[in-house]
Amino acid sequence: MIGTQPFTVAIDGPAAAGKGTIGRAIAERFGLAHLDTGLLYRAVGAQVLTGADPVEAAQGLNAQALENDALRTAAVAQEASKVAVIPEVRAALLDFQRAFARRAGGAVLDGRDICTVICPQAEVKLFVTASPEVRARRRFDELEARGHGPVFEDVLRDVETRDRRDSERSAAPLKPAIGAEVLDTSEMGIEAAVAAAIAFVEQARG
Question: Which parts of the chain register pLDDT below 50?
């Protein structure tokens, strides 16, 4: 356990690098609240796919909108990446994320700009990454397990498209923050990756 004071673990990284799995494991290990901030953008993207205005969707977003299995589809993921480049959307979601990050008892947030924009003063900053091919294979296996029947080349192309869009956007581009620990999971199993991340948190706790 961390205690009652705010303690933020901020995790950034590209799609399917393992940051969500690592974030959930850290939260469970240390008794912290966890927020997959990508779900905020996916929830906005899902509404845009039904005809909503992205800024209005972001401004009116509520917690119930995050509890939707449809947010995990490839179409929603691509739309989330598109709406994430809109500065007004990012601004609308900023306060929600920052308040969550500094809640009493500590929190873990994972996304694309948590270390660089949302929580630059986080006690722990991690950048979790892996090669595009490895990440595409992980996403392919995940989609196949859900019965979506993906084509690997299409999944790889989607991963590379999202990488390019996320890293080249003018609003909070995806990149390692100054002082962040970079964790490359390309050659690591999930247990090893989680153990390495937990070690970083333990070190920060002193």
Answer: none
